[in-house]
Amino acid sequence: MELKAYKMDGLGNDFVIIDRRKDHVNLSKEEIIKIGNRNNIGFDQIIFIEKETKGAFPITIYNPDGIEVGACGNGSRCIAFLISKENNQNLIKLSAEKKILQAEILSEKIVKINMGFPEFEDWNKIPLKSRELNPKILELDFLKKEYGKGFCVNVGNPHIVFFVEDCSKIDIKNIGPKIENHNYFPERVNVTFAQVVDNKNIKVNVWERGAGQTKACGTAACATVVAGYQKELTNNNCNIHFEEGKLNIDFNRSDGQIYMTGPVSDIKEIKLKI
Q1: In 97-136, where do the E strands start and end?
Q2: What is the pLDDT of residue 120?
């Protein structure tokens, strides 16, 4: 079977997009893993667009390991841009896990999206293994002392952020999966090592749950600004710098929600052989 799909990325964070609004296509976990293999098509996430419901387009997101996830900031911005090209509208609503994401096309290929409220007070909403674990100062005993204590936050999916002097020196391919699969995290966790350049700019090195090291990650950017602001290391509005560019993250002090702004790629139509 040959299946029409789209390929897009946000700062190198790449996605396969399948439109299920006309033909409802179901892929097995094994088929998703096959498509996600970098020797085949490859992606950081595969995203399905569903029929519009109550003014919003539901999306379903899977990692390359075939496991469904609750949020993808860059992917959501790409979906919003794709839909805006269809209906010539600048405001697009998406829904993911019953959460409404309002996106706005600000200019050609620059998309802003409301990622909602972060959770970092309640251990159970991260989630962590037990109430004895403090999300704001979580220590993992196997890590080097200079990594400090991690700040845990859920921004649609679970993250832990460590602030270090030089994030480029972190051996993320070695240490990332160890943190991701630590028993403190019943749903596993996304891992970010962040380097504060100044109070408005942060560099990051990211290990995504179920995807590995990625060139960019929107929810990691959101989590990093929340963590930096709560730890009084940065402003609430920061640029997060990745290998191929930056995202602006506004942890809005007026309404407590997170707003992400950044570029998306051109839309490329592809064929998947299933």
Answers
A1: 99-107, 110-116
A2: 97
Strand pairing report for 158-163 and 201-208: unpaired
Catalytic residues: 72, 217
| CB-CB contact of 15 with 7 (8 Å) | yes
Please give the residue range of the domain that contains residue 25. Answer: 2-114+262-273
Task: Quote the percentage of the chain above a pLDDT of 70.
Answer: 100
Residues 191 and 139 in one domain: yes
CATH classification at residue 7: 3.10.310.10
How far is the CA of 75 from the CAs of 10, 63, 86, 87, 115, in angstroms? 7, 12, 17, 19, 12
Mean pLDDT of 144-150: 87
Place of tokens 């966790």: 189
CA distance linking residue 260 with residue 113, whole number of Å: 5
pLDDT value for 145: 80
Dihedral (C-alpha) 64, 70, 76, 82: value to the nearest 10 degrees?
70
Per DSSP, the three-state class of 215 is: coil
- Eight-class DSSP state of 119: B
Amino acid, single-letter form, for residue 250: D
